[in-house]
């Protein structure tokens, strides 16, 4: 038992959140032992090996270079963005690759592809987009790279944010768009939840969402021009696009959201009222807000008070639901909610 450690130590060693490791252990995805009292114990090397194997299994169709670029594609073309029609490009891909749209992926990918290419056409301010499609026996994937201004810097400028990392957080809210008269701001929000793997890169950072294990990451990605979006989905997926929409809608109206608190700050602690106000900006558009505290280590009294007392009292018809809290965050949130 000397080589077994508690979950906090293995989380620090492998770079995963405690809640993620709990889920993987309980689902049998990583090896775990238990004490007589039921506490989880792990061997760090065994856990890392299991995570590496899982990563390889989740990405069987991708041949990656050191720059994490897909080096082979089943289909690829560069298009001028002026007057480009996303449905025509999708039709060309389907016909050239003989895609089976009756498959599980066939019910999701037309939406995801069209929304992401439309963003490049309408928002990127670029002139061209390079589009690749990867058709493998078990998965489909597409990559769209435009030569525009960069999605994160554009959002940062439009909403007067302090840095491009804050722009990622804004995208997790939904209904955030730089062109509100012509766009709803729903495309990235729903696409990031509808596919297995979603990646959005620009302005030197990459936001990755892994819906297979309910995890996310944001990290520096090196300089690049424009925006790169990548989506991957198992062909036989059981994920249903209608169900994804239904989770956040009532009577077909987008009234629920789930912003990821961690993505509004580069650190792991949230203390100030100003941080809370930035997080809450524009959330009054929704009836139910699920605040996702995944990877947040601690919160301060002012941060909690601003959200769960002041904002809640000013918006009595709105419902705030905290989720994925560790024990320290849960204690402060419950304390704050009791003071309403």
Description:
With 340 residues, the chain is of the alpha+beta class. The chain has three domains: 7-58; 75-240, 2-Layer Sandwich (Heat Shock Protein 90), CATH 3.30.565; 255-337, no CATH class. Helices cover 36% and strands 21% of the residues. The protein is built from twelve helices and 16 strands. The chain has helices at 7-14, 18-26, 44-58, 86-97, 109-123, 151-158, 164-171, 187-194, 241-247, 273-280, 301-314, 327-337, and strands at 33-34, 40-41, 75-80, 128-135, 139-146, 197-202, 205-210, 215-220, 227-234, 249-250, 253-254, 256-257, 269-270, 288-292, 298-299, 319-323. The strands form five sheets. Strands 3-4-5-9-6-7-8 form a seven-stranded antiparallel sheet, with helices on one face. Strands 12-14-16 form a three-stranded parallel sheet, with no helix packed on it. Strand 10 (249-250) and strand 11 form a beta hairpin. It starts with 6 loop residues before the first helix and ends with a helix.
CATH class of the largest domain: Alpha Beta
Distance between the termini: 47 Å
* Alpha plus pi helix count: 12
Structure class:
alpha+beta
Give the second-level CATH assignment, the architecture of the largest domain: 2-Layer Sandwich
Strand content: 15-25%
Shape: globular
* Whole-number tally of structural domains: 3
Radius of gyration: 21 Å
Let me know the CATH homologous superfamily of the largest domain.
Histidine kinase-like ATPase, C-terminal domain
**Would you report the number of β strands?**
16
Output mean pLDDT.
86
Largest sheet: 7 strands, antiparallel
CATH topology of the largest domain: Heat Shock Protein 90
- Topology order in helix (H) and strand (E) letters: HHEEHEHHEEHHHEEEEHEEEEHEEHEH
